[in-house]
Design a protein that fits this description.
This is Probable tail fiber protein. This protein has 6 helices and 25 strands. It has 534 residues and is α+β, with helices and mostly antiparallel strands. The N and C termini lie far apart (141 Å).
């Protein structure tokens, strides 16, 4: 384009209002610029949805209903779990749908609110609209129901229940319930091998075992508490456990009980001995008469002599040439070392069952902790019961004797409650009173009467005061002084009107060291009429 500078203007032929021209030889007019501006401005209007930008195949919105119908790509917020179906857990979550625009084979990811838990499922059939079960993706790699061992010091691993044969709530742990074949009973892996016996062909005993005959010197409640409980429960004390020594082991049956010992023995039987009378010269060549014992009371006929008077049984002595065998009765044998299991093979570990899975109540972790605490409490109670069972007979006998003595003493004390015994009667205002029975450790009760307007034989208007006489003052010189208060109502004239007031008067009682003599002082205006003890 040529510009005539001297004229300083653009020819109209070079101006264009077109907005779709590809020409490089013209310039845009104001109308073309406005058209472009308006178009650009319309594209900048703030849209609130993807649809506002023309995107209809991806959604970001809340959802209520059946998750099986969510097949459009997007992210959906489930804020009311109770109004939705087929959720992995009964709580709020985000559902991400991945379908790639094709709703015939879609996948869903569930992100649980306020948690790191993520679940996945997918369609397994388009025709029947079938879905796989939800599978948790962010697990620790241990499947629900797996048995895992932890060091015994670990007492409350999160997500596990102790494998001790107890039961659990199937509503609380639904995944575990299904994994165990619709059973709510945990396996019992607390079984111990302590107490079993075995023979070893080596001298060095494996760890956890001890020689059977070392039980009496080795097993204590501190060293091997479990074996100690078993043996004391059976034999009463460790010192009563029998020694195996060189005995053969027999099964407990046919009137043989566990722990019973037997000496060696040959089953009862008889032998026939044919011989002449040993004093005969023809028998000396066969028998040495110094090595036999003749029982002339047992006569028998021999094949060569029918004369009973010179026939009999012979009992060869053990050091005679006729004696055969060794120093003991035994079969063919091999010597091995008899040992007993003193420490459980898994004593340093405990077995637990993976319980989560899904927890279907609001207090998921609390429920798991509660179940574990209940297991621990149950085990503690069982251990205490087992320990109490191991009390020795002597301890039980002593305890019974103590209880019986305490009962008799309590019975005697109860029999004395409310029982009054009069130990003195008379009329004394002060001085010494001798009572008929010791009052140490008892209650001394004094019956008082005002001396004013009363005669000595008048027993009306009696006032009672009492105090305890300590048993600890028995035999001590001087006894103890007891200050007692007596209250009386007196009248006082005030302007012609009688005003009544209570006056407290005090006197003292001293109990002598013998417990049968008391001294009364400062009992002005009153008589002691009677003294009881209780």
């Amino acid at each position: 384009m040529q510009l005539n500078v001297s004229q300083n203007y653009i020819p109209n032929s070079k101006k264009s209002s077109a907005v779709n021209s590809n020409s490089a030889d013209t310039v845009a007019t104001s109308a073309a610029v406005k058209t472009a501006y308006d178009l650009a401005n319309s594209k900048q209007s703030p849209a609130t949805t993807l649809a506002g930008y023309g995107i209809g195949n991806f959604k970001i919105e809340t959802f209520v209903g059946n998750l099986n119908t969510l097949k459009t790509d997007g992210i959906y917020a489930i804020t009311q779990a109770s109004r939705s179906q087929n959720l992995p857990v009964s709580t709020s979550c985000h559902i991400q749908v991945i379908a790639g625009g094709d709703g015939t084979w879609c996948r869903q990811l569930a992100y649980v609110a306020y948690s790191t838990d993520v679940y996945e499922r997918h369609q397994t059939s388009y025709q029947t609209d079938s879905w796989s079960a939800w599978k948790k993706l962010n697990t620790d790699g241990i499947p629900t129901g797996a048995v895992v061992s932890f060091p015994r010091a670990v007492t409350n691993p999160v997500g596990f229940l102790k494998a001790n044969g107890s039961t659990f709530n199937q509503q609380t742990f639904p995944d575990l319930y299904r994994t165990l074949g619709n059973s709510n009973k945990l396996p019992d892996l607390t079984r111990s091998d302590v107490g079993m016996t075995a023979y070893f062909a080596v001298d060095n005993i494996p760890t956890g075992w001890i020689a059977f005959d070392s039980i009496r010197t080795t097993v204590t409640q501190q060293n091997y508490p479990e074996l100690y409980r078993y043996l004391v429960g059976k034999y009463g004390s460790i010192s009563n456990v029998p020694l195996a020594e060189d005995r053969f082991i027999r099964n407990a049956s046919n009137n043989l009980s566990v722990g019973e010992t037997q000496s060696d023995e040959i089953k009862k039987h008889v032998h026939k001995v044919r011989t002449h009378w040993v004093n005969s010269s023809d028998s000396n060549i066969f028998y040495d008469k110094t090595k036999t014992v003749i029982d002339s009371r047992l006569r028998t006929a021999t094949t060569t002599d029918d004369n009973l008077s010179d026939n009999g049984f012979m009992h060869p002595l053990l050091d005679s040439p006729m004696a055969t065998g060794g120093a003991e009765t035994r079969p063919r044998a091999i010597a091995l070392k008899l040992c007993i299991k003193a420490k459980n093979t898994f004593d340093d570990v405990q077995f637990w069952v993976k319980a989560f899975g899904v927890v279907e109540n609001a207090g998921a972790l609390d429920a798991g902790t509660l179940a574990q605490n209940m297991q621990a409490l149950s085990e503690s109670v069982e251990q205490k019961i087992e320990e109490n069972k191991q009390s020795t007979l002597r301890e039980i006998t002593n305890a019974k004797a103590d209880i019986n003595q305490q009962f008799l003493q309590a019975k005697e004390n109860l029999s004395q409650i409310g029982t009054l015994k009069t130990v003195w009667q008379g009329n004394v205002g002060s001085g010494r009173i001798d009572i008929s029975e010791k009052c140490f450790g008892k209650t001394l009760i004094l019956y008082l009467q005002s001396s004013e307007s009363h005669s000595l034989d008048d027993n009306n208007n009696i006032e009672i005061v009492s105090f305890e006489v300590g048993a600890e003052i028995e035999g001590k010189k001087g006894g103890r002084v007891r200050w007692l208060d007596v209250r009386e109502v007196n009248a006082h004239s005030n302007g012609g009107r009688a005003t009544y007031y209570v006056e407290v008067k005090r006197f003292d009682v001293t109990v002598d060291r013998n417990g049968t003599t008391i001294q009364i002082q400062d009992l002005a205006g009153r008589f002691v009429k009677r003294i009881d003890i209780r």
